[in-house]
């Protein structure tokens, strides 16, 4: 443009410039040095609503009125800014142009100075563009993004509610199921006719099938939430493979099917991975093959596809001679809650989750799954899994008959709020020679643990008054360093993350409901044999008061005043901060602060302060901060009394 303006023939230059400006889509307004409009192109006329004739001679700010897009307040336009600064400027992004007819447009604009052929300042040129459509699209995109964010949050919240519902339903279903399996086991230990024994075994099989369905649904829920984890432990693949085949012999015989298997000798016997999940996948696929095969053979094969000195890749395949699947229907196989035909559910049963879970488990373990099938000619499901070459796993205890009397009777505490579970577990344990005390909730269990020297405590998790995790933490606090009673969790929450939470709370092992009584007897042997237990004596300061509350009795020790002063100073700091920490609603920080106060109180044998700090810890663990605050008030009063006693000589020092 400068070249055009520098032409000697100014009229010719202006004519060419005007022709060029008429063709562009951006609005252009040219003013003199005072900001009086001298020219505007067609696009500028269209956007502003002013014609070239009516705008000429007017000040630029009359034609190009700028307001704030939200408040409507007038704003300084680009030309006014250029006049003030002497520099080229752009338009603020939150500005709106008001047209002559009152219409409003979002515009982007810039202003530059014009010089004549002698280089003398001659005026301004303002170039602007209507970006209303772009702004509208941006708003729509932001609105859609916000909508998607809301939908995402709603979906996550719904998924969380669903997961919590499934977890609670798991507990509600497993509890009566535990009673059914347990009572059947108890009855199977008595003298029965062959027909009665067969009927009871069928009933037990049905209960275990129901448990399998529940586990499928829970596994699927955990996968959706990304919470399903796999282990990496040493296992014997030959033994696992053999046990899986043996487990299906009965079912295949009942259907007059043959089952053949081959495990390549090139597969290392000991691998490192998750044997339980591998077993789950193989069982799912073999069960499917048996379910959809009326005659012929089920073939299970394991063979090496890759191997080096440290790792091996194995392909497992399960082939049947069953009904087969069309290419179109194969696409439905790995969809949630889906089966090829709705009539299949009615005829064969199942949740429609087995293959979905199996495929996802394989992928979680680092592998892949595929299917080959033809309608009427059977199917082959195969999957690849990578394994690290492992070592011989530690030897396990040999199977034990439930009815066999134990050679080492134990004194047990069963903390369980469900009466059916109480009856089943206590009767079996009593029948094999153990002595069992019963507690109906966590608080009652803690009180009994404080007054009895139990060999093992069996602790339910979900209970009124105090749950199993809280009860375990209380017991560990009472025991101190001089004692450790093995605690086994009885839980419907049979996933790895829960196991880690239970162990972190102070438990030694866990067993899932319905309780496998044979596994329970093995666990009892393991936790009692694997610990060199010191003399069983409770923390000398732990007491149950007249109201049944857990307290800490006064110690008979003494401290010098020099030892007390720095501890008191530190306690003052923590107690002062405790109210602010509670006000922040940070339960973990409250628990930590209470723990620090309890430890400090322990150093100076201030057992009442220690007991109050312990109660604040418990309230924080339960998320009950109002009650924690009540205990803080009592703690402050007691601490003030302690300090007064110290200064008045009432607190014993050496």
Automatic annotation (TrEMBL):
Stretches assigned to coiled coil: 134-168
PAC domain residues: 91-143
Domain Histidine kinase span(s) in chain numbering: 168-389
Transmembrane segments: none
GO cellular component: plasma membrane
Membrane topology: Multi-pass membrane protein
Domain Response regulatory: 411-528
Positions of the PAS domain: 13-86
EC number: 2.7.13.3
Top-tier EC class: transferase
Keyword Chloroplast (UniProt): no
Location(s), subcellular: Cell membrane
GO MF annotations, alphabetized: ATP binding; phosphorelay sensor kinase activity
Keyword annotations from UniProtKB, A to Z: ATP-binding, Cell membrane, Coiled coil, Kinase, Membrane, Nucleotide-binding, Phosphoprotein, Transferase, Transmembrane, Transmembrane helix, Two-component regulatory system
Reactions performed catalytically: ATP + protein L-histidine = ADP + protein N-phospho-L-histidine
CDD domains (alphabetical): HATPase_EvgS-ArcB-TorS-like, HisKA, PAS, REC_hyHK_CKI1_RcsC-like
Main location: membrane
4-aspartylphosphate PTM positions: 460
Homology family: In the N-terminal section; belongs to the phytochrome family.
PANTHER family in the cross-refs: HYBRID SIGNAL TRANSDUCTION HISTIDINE KINASE J
UniProt function note: May play the central regulatory role in sporulation. It may be an element of the effector pathway responsible for the activation of sporulation genes in response to nutritional stress. Spo0A may act in concert with spo0H (a sigma factor) to control the expression of some genes that are critical to the sporulation process.
Quaternary structure note: At low DSF concentrations, interacts with RpfF.
Protein name per its UniProtKB record: Circadian input-output histidine kinase CikA
Organism: Heliophilum fasciatum
């Amino acid at each position: 443009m400068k070249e055009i303006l520098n032409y000697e023939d100014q009229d010719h230059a202006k004519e060419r410039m005007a022709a060029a400006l008429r063709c562009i889509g951006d609005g252009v307004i040219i003013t003199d040095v005072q900001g009086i409009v001298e020219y505007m192109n067609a696009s500028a006329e269209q956007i502003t609503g002013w014609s070239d004739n009516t705008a000429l001679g007017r000040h630029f700010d009359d034609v190009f009125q700028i307001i704030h897009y939200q408040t409507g307040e007038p704003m300084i336009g680009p030309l006014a800014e250029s006049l003030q600064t002497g520099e080229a400027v752009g338009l603020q992004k939150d500005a709106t142009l008001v047209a002559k007819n009152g219409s409003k447009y979002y515009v982007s604009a810039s202003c530059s100075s014009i010089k004549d052929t002698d280089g003398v300042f001659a005026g301004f040129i303002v170039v602007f563009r209507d970006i209303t459509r772009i702004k509208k699209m941006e708003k729509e995109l932001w609105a859609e993004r916000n909508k998607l964010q809301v939908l995402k949050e709603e979906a996550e919240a719904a998924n969380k509610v669903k997961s919590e519902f499934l977890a609670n339903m798991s507990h509600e279903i497993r509890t009566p199921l535990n009673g059914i399996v347990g009572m059947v086991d108890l009855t199977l230990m008595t003298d029965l006719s062959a027909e009665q024994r067969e009927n009871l075994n069928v009933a037990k099989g049905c209960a275990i099938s129901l448990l399998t369905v529940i586990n499928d649904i829970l596994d699927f829920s955990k996968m959706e939430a990304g919470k399903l984890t796999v282990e990496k432990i040493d296992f014997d693949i030959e033994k696992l493979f053999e046990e899986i085949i043996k487990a299906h012999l009965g079912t295949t015989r009942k259907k007059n099917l043959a089952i053949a298997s081959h495990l390549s000798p090139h597969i290392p016997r000991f691998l490192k991975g998750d044997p339980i999940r591998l077993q789950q996948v193989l069982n799912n696929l073999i069960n499917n093959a048996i379910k959809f095969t009326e005659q012929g053979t089920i073939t299970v094969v394991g063979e090496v596809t890759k191997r080096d000195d440290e790792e091996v890749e194995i392909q497992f395949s399960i082939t049947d001679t069953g009904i087969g699947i069309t290419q179109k229907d194969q696409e439905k196989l790995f969809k949630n809650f889906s089966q090829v035909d709705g009539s299949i559910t009615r005829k064969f049963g199942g949740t429609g989750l087995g293959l979905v879970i199996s495929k996802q488990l394989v992928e979680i373990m680092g592998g892949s799954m595929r299917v080959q099938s033809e309608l009427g000619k059977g199917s082959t499901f195969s999957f690849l899994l990578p394994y690290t070459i492992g070592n011989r796993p530690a030897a396990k205890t040999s199977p034990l008959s439930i009815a066999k009397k134990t050679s080492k009777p134990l004194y047990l505490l069963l903390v369980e709020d469900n009466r059916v579970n109480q009856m089943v577990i206590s009767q079996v344990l009593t029948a094999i020679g153990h002595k069992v005390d019963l507690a109906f909730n966590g608080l009652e269990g803690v009180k009994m643990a404080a007054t009895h020297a139990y060999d093992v405590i069996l602790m339910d998790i979900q209970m009124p008054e105090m749950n199993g995790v809280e009860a375990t933490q209380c017991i560990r606090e009472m025991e101190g360093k001089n004692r450790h009673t093995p605690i086994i969790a009885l839980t419907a929450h049979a996933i790895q993350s829960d196991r880690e939470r239970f162990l972190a709370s102070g438990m030694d092992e866990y067993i899932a409901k319905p309780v496998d009584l044979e596994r329970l007897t093995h666990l009892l042997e393991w936790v009692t044999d694997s610990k060199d237990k010191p003399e069983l004596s409770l923390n000398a300061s732990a007491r149950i008061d007249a109201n049944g509350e857990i307290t800490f009795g006064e110690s008979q020790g003494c401290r010098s005043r020099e030892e007390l002063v720095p501890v008191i100073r530190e306690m003052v700091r923590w107690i002062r901060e405790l109210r602010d920490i509670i006000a922040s609603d940070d339960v973990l920080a409250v628990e930590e602060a209470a723990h620090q106060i309890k430890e400090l109180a322990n150093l100076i044998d201030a057992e009442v302060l220690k007991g109050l700090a312990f109660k604040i810890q418990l309230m924080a663990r339960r998320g009950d901060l109002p009650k924690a605050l009540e205990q803080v008030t009592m703690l402050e009063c007691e601490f003030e009394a302690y300090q007064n006693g110290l200064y008045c000589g009432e607190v014993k020092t050496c």
